[in-house]
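Budget justification note: compute hours in this period were largely spent on complex prediction jobs such as the one shown. Inputs:
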Amino acid sequence: MLNKAGREIPSVIPGLGEVKLYNGAFGTIPTGRMVGPKIALNKPRSEKLVKSIDQVIDAAGLKDGMTISFHHHFRNGDYVLNMVMEAIARKGIKDLTLAPSSLSNVHEAIIPYMDEGVITAVETSGARGKLGKYFTEGRLKKPVIIRSHGGRARAIECGELKIDVAFIGAPACDTYGNINGISGKSACGSMGYAIVDAEHADKVVAITDNLVPHPLFPISIPQTNVDFIVEVDSIGDPKGIASGALRISKDPRELKIAEYAAAVIEYSGQFKEGYSAQLGSGGASLAVAQFMKEKMIAEGITGSFGVGGITTPFVNMLEEGLFKMMYDVQDFDIPSIESIRKNANHIEMSASYYANPHNRGPIVNNLDFVILSATEVDVNFNVNVITDSNGVMMGASGGHCDTAAGAGVSIVVAPLLRGRLPMVLDKVQTIVTPGETVDVIVTERGVAVNPNRKDLIDNLKCANLPLMNIEDLQKIAYDLAGKPEDIPVTDEIVGVVEYRDGTIIDVIRKPV
Amino acid sequence: MVKITKPAQAGTVESNDIMVTVAPAESGSGIVVELTSPVIKKYGKQICAVIEKTAKDCGIQDALVNANDKGALDCTIEARVKTAIARACAGEAK
Amino acid sequence: MARMRRSMMFVPGNNPGMLINAGIYGADTIIFCVEDAVSVYEKDAARQLVANAIRNIKYPCEVAVRINHISTPYGRDDLAVILPAKPDMIRLPKAETAADILDVDEIITAAEKKCGFEAGSIKMMAAIETCKGIMNAYEIASASPRMEALAIGGEDYLADLRTSRTTHGDEFLAARSQIVVAARAAGIQAIDTVYSDINNEEGFRNEITRIKELGFDGKSVINPRQIKIVHDVFAPTQKEIDHAERVLKAYEEALAKGSGVISLNGKMIDGPIVARAERALAYADALGMRKGAK
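Corresponding output:
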């Protein structure tokens, strides 16, 4: 059946059963209630410390067919997921559903456990490298479910994603299970994604390399959520967890794109005192921060709050008083981690607070602007950030569709050509973010505004920008690169892309 | 008709470029293209067609062309093929 | 009015990625270089690449090519391959005499005829890079009606002069003065040399301010990041824009009335003042400084 994004999706998908089809960004009204974890008795002075990961797997009662979760704040420096999976595999447990908030290249070490049937299903934000290839080849028993950060929080809170055991890498953990991410050698800053897992999983295991006496403060995840604690030598490689300060790009093409994006914001009609923004962490979107800063200073405008994915340029604006506060679900570099540690206006938030569309209102609903990247867009403004030009998974959904839906003005920045590949296509390979929620596409050769946004089209006319129809922008790309051939795919569905509300916006079919 | 007498190369493996190596081939073998490219699924046929056409426009009937593409546009591919062929025929022209 | 050439950006001719993107940065002119930016082993490759880029990519600005000097083993081949692609302009480096210009002019004339291009449609500019060239600046500037601009090629000139770069720029004083006067006398533009310390924004800004005051029309740049700075310095102030608008209004009104003497606030307005006002408004429009104009 055709869903409302124009994609042909079977109503029953092998391995997943019947699915709900995407029906517009806010076209599906949720029913039911939020769910909670199993209740438990914890007697005074009970011992939560367990000697080893092996023992905690037993203590948590992990069995065949269960669902386990992890969080990705340690990014490519994460040791926890691989360490736990190795122990689980050794025990001969099979048929698990792996539901990490995202996967990094370092996790390709678990591919053998997928081959062996330890893991037979994966629900996550995305995958790249060998894992992306593995999933795209359809080697898992079930299609991978791709969820946005908000969509994952929603799925957990409504019970669609029921986590039996959550394993939480804890940069600091006290002896009764209070956790934060801001101290210790493996500090990662915000623990935003893990907060939701900890609140809803039936069993919660903290794995730490920094066990401290009770009580730990401040608390990101409270002792009331944590069943067991295991101390290990190391939960992550600091070099992989956070980079040194992310710097503004010097790539002239990225700077050009950023300059145009900043002009879009300036002339949008919503750039005024108290505005709010989320800036991405990619080259061009990071550079937007620099231009915004100059404009804010020049025009004497201060923002109310920033959201992220926090990076150094954003932290600098907070420190200079250009934004009053930052809501932080994840940190990308060391200065951001330092900032959340010391700056009272830099506030940790959960993935649900960030972006769950089915709570009483996530912070994305209050966003004026978001700058987003893209692998491809199409003439209907749909955006793909998950599959590459060969149809292989190589990215992550992240907060893309959440912020696009929430923000007053959603701006996608990308080069019009990547090598030879045009970025504006007739149809993107995979829709992650529907065009109805995307307002402006900014490239180095032209800026296209969604025709639904007549207000923006009017406001941007006096911005000295190369405004054009999306079709004209596409033509520039095709004139340079030629029209690309479609990637031939089979009927086999290897992944489904959930929209943030749990409906299926697109599927990933195995390329020929 | 121009005949390739020795192997020659043009281009680089920088992004947006293509490294083209042409080598002599037996008479009657035609233009044989070996292509490596990150965009082979979307543009492989087009790239081979441009290489073949450029070679023929230069008067080449038979050649072995190895192309290591890094996302070059057609105008770049054509320039690199022309240069490689000119270099491969350089001795003969005299 | 003469074409704006505030920024003329060099682009290495053997780099496809740079050639493809050269048009997106807003330079008034891009100059594809097959001279100093290309090694002697890659001259053949670069000229093919440049010719093809000009043929196939739509650039939103003037496209010039810096060829090798006509006396080198490459200059004539450069022209043979590149002229049929119809660049807007050929830039001859190391021009020393009017004869250099005439040689190139002759080749261009023949190519225009052969390719069926309009006669005189391919323009020329020359860079003077020696003391001898400076002494011949006016002859070079006025050698051909194709000539649109004179430029200084900095490093070679300083070597010839037996001095080197300073922060104050006095070493260029003689050359810059001579070039701008020669160019003006010949009715063409004067373009200053490159500033290679791309991270020194302040020094760059100071240099542009100085050459603008000397009378130069623009500056050669080597990095896209320099373009905006050049345009900023050449931008008229709001006061200048307002004045220019009033001048042109008075001029148009006088024309409409058929009155011979034009004045604004009691001051005479003549040709050069009108031209200056037009130039100020062109710079302002290029930067989108006049909201709602046109």
